Amino acid sequence: MPRMTFVERDGTKREVDAPLGLSVLEIAHKHGVDIEGACEGSLACSTCHVIVDPSWFGKLASPTEDEEDMLDLAFDLQETSRLGCQLIMTEALDGLVVKLPSGTRNAGG
């Protein structure tokens, strides 16, 4: 099974099982990682915002316009920011590393 690493707000790294076909948001919830996901993955908020490790960012599919619109509302937006609900685990993403932002802003959702 693929694995991925969440870097918590305090810098703690948590490597977890990342079942194929689940989103980063779903994987976080499965393992008790503190990502809100207020809209439950319906692209109506930015509370599942994660910062993708730069070494992985280029391996991801480009965000949709809807995802980019929601990211514009995210707190602590970075060059490699994505919404966790839009990142679906594949074999190619085995080892993915994402960092939780310093906070969230719930606009919508």
Automatic annotation (TrEMBL):
It comes from the Bacteria. CDD domains: fer2. Keywords: 2Fe-2S, Iron, Iron-sulfur, Metal-binding. Gene3D superfamilies: 3.10.20.30. Residues 2-104 form the 2Fe-2S ferredoxin-type domain. PROSITE patterns: 2FE2S_FER_2, ADX. The keyword Lipid metabolism does not apply. Its cofactor is [2Fe-2S] cluster. Signal peptide: none annotated. Belongs to the adrenodoxin/putidaredoxin family. This is Ferredoxin family 2Fe-2S iron-sulfur cluster binding protein.
